Description:
This protein is of the alpha/beta class. The protein has a domain at 44-187 and 281-311: Rossmann fold (3-Layer(aba) Sandwich), CATH 3.40.50.150. It has 10 helices and 12 strands. The longest helix has 17 residues, at 44-60.
Amino acid sequence: MRDFARDVARDLALSPKQIQSRYLYDALGSSLFESICRLPWYRITRAEGRLLTRWASEMVAPLQDPVTLLELGCGSGEKIALLAEALRSRRRRVAIHLIDISPTALELSERTLGALEHVSVVGHRATYEEGLRHAARERPPHGGLLVLFLGSNIGNFDPPASHDFLSEIRQAMRPGDALLLGADLIKPVDQLLLAYNDPLGVTAAFDKNLLVRMNRELGADFDLAAFEHQAIWNPGERRVEMHLVSLRDQSAQIRRAGISVAFEAGESIWTESSYKYEPHEVVELVSAAGFHSHAQWTDPEARFALTLFLAE
């Protein structure tokens, strides 16, 4: 909670005001995001599932036994289960490490993977960076590592941060290890905005739950009815942005962060970015961090790509 309070105090003093998207994922936020993934307007999860179902065997083929699968941001565990099953069906040994800051996501994934026989599963409640370093130390001295960074989570990083993060992944690897990266591709703006501001209001609830969390954990007094969820397409940066927009002039006290924050009508808290790519840009982005592209699979209908990279 100290980190949460410190980060909120720092980031709400910025212009524009913002809060790191990782704080969207408390227990309720994680559950709401799982619901978002099932909405007809949010096509990433289903497209990624189709690609994994069809190509899982090819995705794990370059790895040496025994195989360690490591997922950054594990969600429900359904995706990594497809790769684990592809290994098991060929009687290949597999160990799984799950890394997430959400205990709800870890519990759900561990239940999903518990149905697989002869697969060891270890959950790490940690940031991506901390969990990656810890899991890399625990892997066997021989065999291949496949790091999964799926769901277009890479799009939550701005370009410099994405390079730094991919470089950190590479530093935790040995030559011949692999990274499977999911990336959402550029598509018509109306499709993008529906994915981040659905007609049922599930994404709005997910976003506004950040205010609920601050009220509960940081002793804040945000009035939920005085903020509105908004998704916008920023064409210059090629990203969807999520904002909580103040509907009137107001102020909020955040006692455990030791601050009072004033808002003008129309001013927002920027809560998430989701960058979109062309297929070749995904390859260029990751190659610059010390990988080379092995294969890329795309879903042309949903405009989504999975790319397998090998560590050089």
